[in-house]
Amino acid sequence: MSKPRAVYLQSGGPTAVLNASAQGAIETARQRGLSMYGAFDGLAGLLDGRLCDIDAVSDEAIAQLAFMPGGSFGVSRRMIGSFAEAGDDWRRLREVLARHDIHYLLVNGGNGSLGCAERLAEFERHMGYPLKVVGIPKTIDNDLVGTDNSPGYGSSAKFLASAMREVGLDMTSMGWGRVFIMETMGRHTGWLAAACAAAARNEREAPHLLLLPEVAFDAERFLAAVDDRLARFGQCAIAVAEGITDADGRFVAEAKKSEVYGHEQLGGAGHWIAQLLLRERGISAHVAQVDYLQRAGGHLGSSMDVRQAYIMGERAVEWLLAGKSGVMAGIKRIQDHPYCWDVVEVPLSEVGDQEKRLPPEFIGADGFSVTPAFLDYVRPLMEGERIPPFKDGLPDYRPIAWPKV
After folding, report:
1. Which residues make Cβ contacts (< 8 Å) with residue 242, sequence separation at least 6?
2. φ and ψ at residue 362, rounded to 5 degrees
3. Backbone angles phi, psi at 397, to 5 degrees
4. At what angle do helices 303-321 and 18-32 cross, to 10 degrees?
5. Catalytic one of 88, 101, 141, 366
6. Binding site feature residues for Mg(2+)
7. pLDDT tens-place string over residues 123-176
């Protein structure tokens, strides 16, 4: 009798630990007798029937996923609407699943992807084809509801805070009057920009100001704050989220809306702030738009992040085989000191297409800082170093050649 078969896919933007979730799912499937296929390029590949045979890949190769950033199977922003909206996609998907005798689906993604997984959890009701669906959380933005934190965030937070601490030392060595702006991702939430605050051990150290989407940007208050930091510390390092808005809720820097994914394609908030400083204060600021670097930096990943990502994939497979569907593996924080957490079932209906913003208790009273409660929250997520193998002085990442079905 043939083994039951699942298909695993990665959806949305990659992270430094996305492949660790794949490793957790694959190794658990092998231990539990579940055959595993992978979909190339997320839901786009699944709909096209572009699949790979994970079972044909060696255990040694699968173990390499623990160290590899990015999405080993390829990702896409392709989504599937409801049955009423996208009936043709549903029928196409049924044909692919039936052709390969697939009755289990693992969706490893963020808000939009898990919203799609929620819809597909109704697949059997609409299509008469048995399909169990479980979600695996993933996003550097850390904006998934239903989970204390999202795998991927801890490593990005570690990267950003490390870079900010090093920049702070560079600025100090260069003398007085320096202004540096680091623009992080964060379309509607400030989790990534806030993480930069972990770099500072006292108020003199970078970053000196945080600009968060949760706090409306006020130019006069901001300029006064820069004046104050320059007067007191001789320098001002600023972390700004790409999605900061004015008092009317408009992005200060917005390009055109994505026709593919429906999200605003942002970028340029840092340069916008720099132009404001030049125009109003005659200050020339250095700007770094971190962009892909903050999610691709696998050379200094958080070992806690890797562990959590792996366990999310592991638990998702266990739940599928237990007959569960329509749920996501979520992280429940039990305490900060010492850090303790557990895995909980979260209904996909509570997760998909929603966003978790920085709560008020994590934002400083001045609107330019975070509270000790946020630092207690973020520091455990950055703990431990996941160092990949190195060769010739560089990370020795070895992409897997997945055999096509």
Report:
1. 183, 184, 185, 186, 187, 253, 266, 267, 268, 269
2. -95, -10
3. -75, 135
4. 40
5. 141
6. 111
7. 999 999 999 999 999 999 999 999 999 999 999 999 999 999 999 999 999 888
The bridge status of strand 254-257 relative to strand 209-211 is unpaired
289-328 pLDDT tens trace: 999 999 999 999 999 999 999 999 999 999 999 999 999 9
Q: Which residues are annotated as a binding site?
A: 13, 111, 139-141, 185-187, 242, 292-295
What is the dihedral sign for C-alpha 138, 141, 144, 145? positive
In the residue annotation, 141 being an active-site residue is answered as: yes
Q: Which residues contribute to the annotated binding site for substrate?
A: 139-141, 185-187, 242, 292-295
In whole angstroms, give the CA distance from residue 134 to residue 324.
8
What span, in angstroms and rounded, lies between the C-alpha atoms of 385 and 198?
A: 16
Quote the DSSP letter at residue 57. S
Peptide bond into 207 cis (omega under 30): yes
What average pLDDT is seen over the chain? 95
Q: Which residues pair with 182 in a beta bridge?
A: 239, 288
- Please report the DSSP string for 327-395 in residue order: EEEEEEEEETTTTEEEEEEEEGGGTTT--PPPPGGGB-TTSSSB-HHHHHHHGGGG-SEEPPPEETTEE
Cβ(136)–Cβ(313) below 8 Å:
yes
Please return the burial class of 204, using the count of CB atoms within 10 Å of its CB with bins 0-12, 13-18 and 19+: middle
Q: Which residues are annotated as a binding site for diphosphate?
A: 13
Cβ atoms of 20 and 72 within 8 Å: the answer is no
| pTM given for the model | 0.95
- Using the predicted structure, report yes or no on whether residue 257 has a pLDDT greater than 70: no
List, in sequence order, every residue forming a beta bridge with 344; answer none if it has no partner.
330
Q: With contact defined as beta carbons under 8 Å apart, do 191 and 358 qualify?
A: yes
Query: For residue 1, what pLDDT is reported?
Result: 56
Buried b (16+ CB within 10 A) or exposed e, 393-403: eebebeebebe
